[in-house]
Design a protein that fits this description.
Length: about 450
């Protein structure tokens, strides 16, 4: 099968429903940047694509950072003076400040309030908050509930552990014909949030599953890592391999109803940037393009100046720009099977173009070759498609000086990439063109 045929597989196999159901399965797991929630998540993904699981010990130096102690949590609650649980981790894992230190004590309302997080603007939602590097404990709750709290004695209990342990991450590698790599990176550190993190995880998982069936030009490396510390750790452990990365995408926020947004790599005009823009334009859907800025997800690390890798970011909604971001409203209603499937299809189009965007050399560069005697020039024109094909032949011949890829020619000529590729194939057959060696 060809990569271009995989889009039909997405529809035939109902991949959108499968990805949605995988989100549903992963949603309740209490994840963080370390701990058993991550292990369980990677174990479930391994049921679809067997991942290589790595465990990096606490205290390992990774550039300017250090692997933190491993955090695990069993239970947490707040009880009022009558012994009733008013906040229960069992009902939503967002209720606990992620990485809370253990606590069990009685507190008055004033002290309790110093450890509570709410969203007054969205009084029904629970915020998602973390405190990875600043030892603290806390609870997140709806503002409506917060408003009802009375002056009384409360008991707070967080049954968490912070122990030496490890940071866990998963890797899935598909060897292509070439050792040049396409990097796909998603973060796995958020608990019950469907779009931020889980959509990226399931789209990456199904991409790996589909690509694994093909013979590919490039090798594909999928990273399932905790945000920030994960990519810093991976880069520090694989510095010698990063020159193989020719294209990369950070994936997240791919299941909501927003239009697509592509954030360019720091280079700004890398091949992946031009390919993503071209595919978005061709999709006929609305989309947004953003230049690189040093905030967001793991593209910040891949595009740090010491690496400056050609890695962009694809999402639908943009982090921090929609009210549901990092709240309990980023739930199963916020993501949609057809949007997940649309994201998967769009990325397959991007990969298809990565695989087929070759650069050629014109073997008869001094004046135009005579196309008629090679059966490539139709005397009786008129059909629009035939005319376009003729033009495509001329464009490919003229621009194939080794400096322009087929995509460059498609953009410059405004002729569809597929037609440019067909023309190049015809010219190769009659020995007027050859692929430029890498
Ligand atoms: Zn996030």
């Amino acid at each position: 099968m060809e990569l271009s045929g995989l889009k039909n597989e997405v529809i035939k196999n109902r991949s959108g429903d499968k990805m949605y159901n995988l989100i549903r399965r992963l949603y309740p797991i209490p994840r963080s940047i370390t701990g058993d929630g991550v292990r369980k998540t990677l174990d479930i993904i391994s049921g679809i694509n067997p991942l290589t699981i790595h465990e990096v010990p606490r205290g390992t130096k990774v550039f300017d950072w250090e692997i933190p102690p491993e955090w695990n949590i069993k239970d947490a609650w707040i009880k009022n003076s009558r012994g009733e649980k008013i906040v229960d981790f069992g009902k939503s894992n967002l209720h606990v400040l992620n990485y809370s230190v253990p606590v069990k004590k009685k507190v008055n309302l004033k002290e309790l309030k110093e450890h509570l997080f709410t969203l007054p603007d969205y009084p029904d939602w629970i915020p998602y908050r973390t405190s990875y590097h600043n030892p603290d404990w806390g609870f997140c709750m709806t503002y409506n509930q917060f408003k009802e709290l009375k002056e009384e004695e409360y008991e707070v209990f967080i049954d968490s552990t912070l122990e030496p342990g490890h940071l866990t991450y998963g890797e899935y590698f598909i060897q292509g014909k070439s050792n040049d790599e396409v990097l796909i990176s998603c973060h796995i550190c958020h608990p019950s949030l469907s779009d931020d993190n889980l959509s990226g995880i399931v789209v990456s998982t199904y991409l790996a599953l589909l690509l694994g069936k093909l013979k590919l030009q490039y090798s594909y490396r999928f990273l399932f890592i905790p945000g920030t510390i994960g990519s810093i750790m991976w880069l520090s452990r694989n510095e010698d391999k990063t020159n193989r990365i020719k294209h990369g995408l950070v994936l997240t926020l791919l299941g909501d109803k927003e239009k697509f947004h592509y954030k360019r790599s720091r280079k700004g005009n890398a091949e992946i940037d031009r390919i993503a823009e071209y595919i978005l334009k061709q999709s006929g859907e609305e989309y947004g393009l953003m230049d690189f800025y040093p905030y967001g997800y793991d593209e910040r690390q891949y595009c740090s100046p010491g690496f400056n890798l050609p890695v962009g970011r694809l999402s639908r909604a943009v982090h921090g720009k929609f009210p549901e971001y990092h709240t309990s409203a980023d739930n199963m209603e916020f993501v949609h099977p057809e949007k997940l499937a649309g994201s998967l299809s769009l990325i397959l189009d991007i990969f298809n173009l990565i695989e087929s965007n070759k650069t050629y050399l014109n073997l008869n560069p001094k004046c135009e070759p005579q196309l008629g005697k090679r059966g490539l020039f139709k005397k009786i024109g008129g059909q629009k498609e035939t005319e376009e094909y003729q033009m495509a032949l001329l464009w490919v011949l003229n621009m194939s000086d080794g400096a322009n890829s087929l995509l460059d020619i498609a953009i410059k000529s405004k002729i569809d990439f597929g037609m440019i590729k067909t023309a190049a194939n015809s010219l190769v057959k009659v020995n007027l063109l050859k692929e430029k060696p890498l």
